[in-house]
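Thread amino acids onto this structure.
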């Protein structure tokens, strides 16, 4: 797709070089009004089947849409019917360049330049045609592109495209420094202050610099100059999504789709909604695309991810798994990442199929060290939930070698030690780390108490006392009766009531206060009633 990005704004050329009909077709392509542009080019080649320039710019139309094979087909056809046209020769050279035959391509480019050496304007057009492919092709030749465009400027100094392309070449050469590029984009605006293409180019540089305000103002300016210039709305929408302005993005996208309601445009819209985490909107648009007959492994991937997040959708996880299955069935192996397995595992987990979720996470973990590190925590939780405590402990300890565990992970690790290998010292250590990270989290002290009880089951040392005491201290009186606190407080109070009856710290008055806590929470508790003489 990178091959297409710059061409989206550069294929419009001066009226001096073309008849009005071809100019109109190119202008429609530049505006991303693809249906109208296609019809215009179709009409042109039907009327003038031997005009190589029509095919050359028809090829640019396909190139902009990402249909590289169709672009090559048009350039080949233009050369076949009109080998004397300089632009047909450039098109043939482009095909050769994309095939990797650079020597043959340069020979064709030289031929096109020779054909136009007596016509400065046409020669500048040839230079631009060559420079574009040098800038945008996977194999680049930026230095030669810059030389060609410098020469084109000398020969055709008022042509916007020279400066647009030169700015693009310089930005490609120094992507971290846009100063040289913006000088050329500003020259476009000197030639034509109302050029939406020049304004949008400047806006995109501000966007690269993460300057939302200036970029947004420039996009608004471009839309004000030409309310039919679709790329300004699309770029503005993508800026909005980048800065989490979803409502503004959707507003711009809807205007873009009014100008360009094609399948390709709607695919871009769906992709933008997905990238911007507007998952429910993405689902709606992708399903509309599928009804139009458009589907690929990217759409199935986006659906699988989106259904995991858009829980308001009926049978979301089931639909997500169906999309994930389709994705794995059609995606090239090299395009599948561990995140695809992770997503499928999460869908299984949400559907209640933890055993299948574990398999997906395990498959993902085997793909790379990065995957293993990223998924260690998720796998540990699933192992713990499935009571595979030894594996959970292994996964948590592996993750701990990479990053500190969160309080929730330490808490779960403590439970794994407690219920799995019954390693109570390590369980206590894990719960101690939780209490250090979250000092007001009462359950951490409850489980420290329980772990220490297993180390002192006959209460010979009364190891649990400080931890149960901390539970009573942390849980406010008014919160003791809540479902999450009641059992915890009663367990703590009973232990402390017994402690002040049977330990060396015997204090019947204190013991009574704890048994009164128990009876307040459960008036029918027989132990409390016995101690308090209520039987």
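Threaded sequence (535 positions):
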């Amino acid at each position: 797709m990178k091959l297409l990005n710059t061409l989206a704004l550069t294929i419009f050329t001066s009226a001096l070089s073309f008849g009005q009909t071809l100019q109109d077709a190119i202008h429609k392509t530049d505006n991303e009004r693809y249906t109208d542009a296609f019809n215009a080019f179709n009409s042109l080649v039907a009327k003038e089947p031997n005009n190589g320039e029509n095919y050359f710019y028809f090829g640019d139309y396909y190139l902009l849409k990402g249909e590289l094979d169709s672009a090559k087909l048009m350039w080949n056809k233009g050369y076949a019917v009109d080998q004397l046209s300089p632009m047909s020769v450039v098109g043939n050279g482009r095909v050769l360049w994309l095939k990797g035959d650079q020597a043959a391509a340069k020979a064709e480019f030289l031929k096109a330049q020779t054909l136009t050496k007596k016509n400065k304007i046409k020669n500048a057009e040839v230079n631009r045609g060559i420079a574009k492919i040098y800038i945008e092709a996977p194999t680049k030749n930026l230095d030669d592109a810059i030389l060609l465009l410098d020469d084109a400027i000398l020969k055709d100094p008022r042509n916007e495209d020279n400066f647009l392309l030169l700015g693009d070449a310089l930005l490609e050469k120094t992507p971290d420094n846009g100063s040289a590029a913006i000088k050329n984009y500003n020259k476009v605006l000197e030639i034509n202050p109302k050029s939406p293409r020049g304004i949008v180019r400047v806006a995109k540089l501000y966007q690269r610099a993460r300057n939302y305000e200036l970029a947004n103002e420039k996009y608004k300016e471009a839309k004000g100059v030409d309310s039919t210039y679709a790329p300004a709305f699309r770029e503005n929408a993508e800026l909005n999504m980048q800065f989490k302005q979803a409502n503004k993005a959707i507003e711009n996208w809807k205007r873009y789709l009014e100008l360009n309601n094609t399948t390709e445009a709607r695919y871009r819209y769906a992709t933008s909604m997905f990238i911007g985490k507007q998952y429910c909107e993405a689902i709606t648009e992708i399903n509309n695309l599928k009804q139009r007959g458009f589907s690929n492994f990217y759409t199935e991937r986006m659906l699988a991810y989106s259904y995991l997040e858009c829980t308001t959708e009926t049978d979301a996880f089931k639909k997500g798994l169906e999309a994930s299955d389709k994705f794995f069935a059609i995606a090239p192996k090299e395009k599948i990442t561990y995140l695809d397995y992770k997503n499928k595992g999460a869908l299984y987990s949400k559907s209640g199929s933890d055993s299948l979720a574990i398999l997906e996470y395990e498959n993902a973990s085997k793909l790379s060290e990065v995957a293993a590190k990223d998924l260690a925590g998720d796998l540990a939780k699933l192992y713990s939930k499935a009571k595979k405590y030894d594996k959970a402990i292994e996964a948590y300890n592996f993750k701990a070698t990479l990053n500190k565990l969160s309080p929730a992970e330490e808490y779960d690790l403590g439970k794994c030690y407690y219920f799995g290998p019954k390693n109570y010292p390590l369980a206590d250590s894990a719960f101690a780390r939780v209490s250090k990270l979250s000092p007001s989290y009462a359950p951490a002290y409850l489980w420290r108490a329980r772990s220490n009880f297993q180390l002192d089951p006959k209460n010979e040392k009364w190891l649990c006392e400080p931890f149960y005491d901390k539970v009573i201290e942390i849980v406010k009186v008014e919160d003791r009766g809540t479902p999450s606190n009641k059992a915890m407080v009663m367990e703590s109070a009973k232990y402390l009531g017994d402690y002040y009856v049977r330990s060396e710290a015997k204090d019947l008055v204190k013991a009574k206060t704890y048994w009164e806590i128990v009876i307040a929470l459960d008036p029918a508790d027989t132990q409390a009633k016995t101690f308090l003489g209520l039987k």
